[in-house]
């Protein structure tokens, strides 16, 4: 018999079509044109991101999964018994499967903005792990989290893999951790994947894979603008660029206009010079100590950190303390 999923619709209505239009137009009017990275993830964008994770140059997924699979016993010890695991941006709930056999948790809460994706993946999880109480909340985890009332919140452990924290600006990452500190009860844990600073060649290769999947992922934004905002533009007149900005410690993704041109989006015209860019994403990289310091300021103490031998990627187990240093 299929197990039921406890579903909570905390639908973030504010991010509807109108706000996408407003945000995109605001970004296109700026001196350095930009677009929020969240607009890279429509259905096609999410599929392309899954493909990126399989590219040989994109090391984060491979290394993080290796760490989780190898360290699962240590992780289980830290998580302890009868906890609820809360996955932020659970998507396909794939990585959590590496942990579930060994963790002695009683319930799982997946939080994701994409309703259908969330329902499908948590239903499969409930089927495959019948002993697990599965909850799913359709919510934007960047907004303040509301924990479902009938969830066992005595011991909560957050799970935020994939170094998605790197897609926030550092001030946003700090605020995000501060928000988690407010949400999680004292003594809770946070298992989080963080990509590390490393040589330019490895970083740039990861975001410029030879098969061109990341390029398609980036360019898909323009197709999305055509589809959803009636944009009048030719995606072939743009190219993908990803560079490491060493000073700021981040990979920047841009769409480069290959010629002087005028495009229109939602009825408004925008001029691009040849070589001018639309900045579509930042992916910040941290040192282990730098990330731990940020976590400490938010009120989390480091209990364990694991990296691969080359120190390309890190997985941290943090524990929520009673007080924050920057309330
Ligand atoms: C989701 N996020 C952590 C990815 C990253 O590496 O910043 C998104 C991505 N963009 C291009 N490739 C992967």
What does this structure look like?
The structure is a single chain. This protein is an alpha/beta fold and 327 residues long. It is 33% helix and 26% strand. It contains ten helices and 14 strands. It has an eight-stranded mixed sheet with strand order 1-5-4-3-6-7-14-13, sandwiched between helices. A four-stranded mixed sheet has the order 2-12-9-8. The protein has a two-stranded antiparallel ribbon with strand order 10-11. α6 (115-128) links the parallel β4 (107-112) and β5 (133-138). The model is unreliable at 14-18 (pLDDT under 50). Bound molecules: N,N-dimethyl-L-histidine. The site of N,N-dimethyl-L-histidine (AVI) has 11 residues, from β12.
Task: Give a topology summary.
Elements: E1 5-9, H1 17-29, E2 33-34, H2 43-52, H3 59-70, H4 72-79, E3 84-88, H5 97-100, E4 107-112, H6 115-128, E5 133-138, E6 156-160, H7 170-183, E7 189-195, H8 200-206, H9 213-229, E8 238-245, E9 250-257, E10 261-265, E11 268-272, E12 277-284, H10 288-297, E13 300-307, E14 313-320
Parallel strand pairs: 1-5, 2-12, 3-4, 3-6, 4-5, 6-7
Antiparallel strand pairs: 7-14, 8-9, 9-12, 10-11, 13-14
Bound molecules: N,N-dimethyl-L-histidine (AVI).
Residues 52, 60, 162-164, 166-167, 207, 214, 281, 283 line the site of N,N-dimethyl-L-histidine (AVI).
């Amino acid at each position: 018999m299929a197990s039921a999923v406890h579903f909570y619709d905390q639908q973030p209505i504010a991010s509807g079509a109108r706000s996408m239009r407003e945000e995109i137009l605001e970004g296109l009017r700026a001196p350095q044109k930009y677009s929020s990275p969240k607009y890279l993830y429509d259905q096609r964008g999410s599929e392309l991101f899954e493909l990126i994770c399989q590219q040989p140059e994109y090391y984060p997924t491979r290394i993080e999964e290796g760490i989780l699979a190898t360290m699962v016993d240590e992780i289980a010890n830290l998580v302890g018994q009868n906890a609820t695991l809360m996955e932020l941006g659970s998507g396909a709930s794939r990585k959590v499967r590496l942990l579930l056999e060994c963790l002695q948790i009683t319930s799982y809460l997946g939080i994701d903005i994409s309703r259908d994706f969330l329902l499908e993946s948590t239903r499969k999880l409930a089927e495959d792990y019948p002993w697990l109480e599965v909850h799913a909340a359709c919510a934007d985890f960047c907004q303040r989290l509301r924990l479902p009332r009938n969830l066992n919140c005595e011991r909560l452990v957050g799970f935020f893999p994939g170094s998605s924290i790197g897609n926030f600006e550092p001030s946003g990452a700090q605020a995000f951790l501060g928000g988690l500190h407010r949400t999680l009860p004292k003594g809770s844990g946070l298992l989080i994947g963080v990509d590390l600073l490393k040589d330019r060649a490895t970083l740039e290769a990861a975001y410029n894979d030879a098969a061109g999947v990341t390029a398609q992922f980036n360019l898909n934004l323009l197709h999305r603008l055509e589809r959803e905002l009636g944009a009048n533009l030719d995606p072939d007149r743009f190219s993908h660029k990803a560079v490491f900005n060493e000073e700021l410690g981040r990979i920047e993704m841009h769409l480069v206009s290959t010629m002087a041109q005028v495009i229109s989006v939602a009825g408004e015209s925008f001029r691009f010079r040849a070589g001018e860019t639309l900045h579509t994403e930042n992916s910040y990289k941290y040192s282990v100590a730098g990330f731990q310091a940020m976590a400490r300021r938010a009120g989390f103490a480091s209990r364990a950190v694991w990296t691969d031998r080359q120190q390309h990627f890190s997985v941290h187990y943090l524990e929520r303390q009673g007080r924050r240093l920057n309330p």
